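Case study B.
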Amino acid sequence: MPQRLSLNQKTTNRWSVQEAVDGCVRAELTSIGLWREPVHEVGVTQAARMVTDAGLRVSSLCRGGFLTAEPGPERDRAIDDNRRAIDEAAALSADCLVMVVGGLPEGSRDLAGARDRVAEAIAALAPYAEERGVQLALEPMHPMYCADRGVLSTLDQSLDMAEPFAPDVVGVVVDTFHVWWDPAVEAAIARAAERIASFQVCDWITPLPADTLLSRGMMGDGHIDFRHFRRLVEAAGYDGAIEVEIFNADIWAADPDDVVALMKKRYAERVLEP
Amino acid sequence: MPQRLSLNQKTTNRWSVQEAVDGCVRAELTSIGLWREPVHEVGVTQAARMVTDAGLRVSSLCRGGFLTAEPGPERDRAIDDNRRAIDEAAALSADCLVMVVGGLPEGSRDLAGARDRVAEAIAALAPYAEERGVQLALEPMHPMYCADRGVLSTLDQSLDMAEPFAPDVVGVVVDTFHVWWDPAVEAAIARAAERIASFQVCDWITPLPADTLLSRGMMGDGHIDFRHFRRLVEAAGYDGAIEVEIFNADIWAADPDDVVALMKKRYAERVLEP
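Model:
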């Protein structure tokens, strides 16, 4: 039984929380990564009950973030929404709240400024998260998303931003899809050590699908050496969940139980030792 | 008259070498960046005569590279082809030969190995380039091309690879499209100093076009602060050509003279001081 493997519910995008929970139980998985929108559909209390009743652990809640707005009403709304996300992560006893920090504001070309505002927003949110026992997990995004989704582009940059805070308050996500290309990633993972809040796996496939938001592949379908990254995070001391989060139109069109079965197979073949 | 502005002929993709040379003269440009394929169509000697007769300088020749193959016939062919490219750059008196180093070999997931083989190939080519007075210009490619086009992903990584060689033998390309997202780019450009062989500008546009090889935009159409990068390379000591290289289906469909006129306008507005 794959004790560390976790199904991020985006991988089986058409499943509701209850269906994803049931799918995990059928597949003998012990962890699940949840998204806020499907959780809201049933209510946080009910979703928490579903996972608890099934004996599952919530390896992550996606997602907080989108914190690059200039000071003003939009930024205030973002901070409020992130506080709600922290409350939800606490209610779900999630291992962490994944933070996708947001891209450049409309019309802005001030990348350094956007990055500074993310750091300020994290500082504003950290005490709230700490009080509720929630770890914020800064997710470096692949640089192709820098303009429109996430101005945190490398693991080192995320660690620099996390550094002022205790590791159990602000950690980082190591998602192979986002960081596999980075020539400094080995050193950065070693540096991350106890700040690794989440380890996510999915593959980089070519040619890149037309919609780059749906360009992630099942492990083994692309170019990433997953065992290498699993060994790196383990050497850094990480022994938590290994979560599979795949945005891909073909995978979303397939039968979710088949996707979970394939995920388990590829996890054994490609992520664990051969 | 924009003395430093150079038209990379890819920006006016349908023009032959002679047409691009004539277009530069009409627009009062003094430099051109050439590609090997159109140069081969007329022959290197003839192409060299065209640019000399027009009083133009060749700011770059694109491209050498594709050096990630394992030892064997494919790698031997790549080395031979790069020697020919060096000869062509010498015949054209090009300021540099741009090196796009290549992606992972078919089926390989050994990124570190591919990067090591590039370093070995550069060591094999450097003496040949030095004898002919040609500067090899290592081009870090945007990480979205890491798997299939260029395993050099950051300017720092390119500088590490260039370090064993004299700056006039192995330099680097600073192309805003490829490096704008990098949180370490300011320090890397300062570090690059006299190794900056070429400074190329084009914009990062969103949403990313479906064909990511054609996803570059005219300056001002996207998210990059060009003045910031021009100041950085100048502060590092670079005073050479500022070359505009745009792969974009809409720009390729437009009248090339109109594209050159727009390029001059945007260069003045977006790259130079306002």
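The mean pLDDT of chain A is 97. The remaining cases will be described in the next quarterly update.
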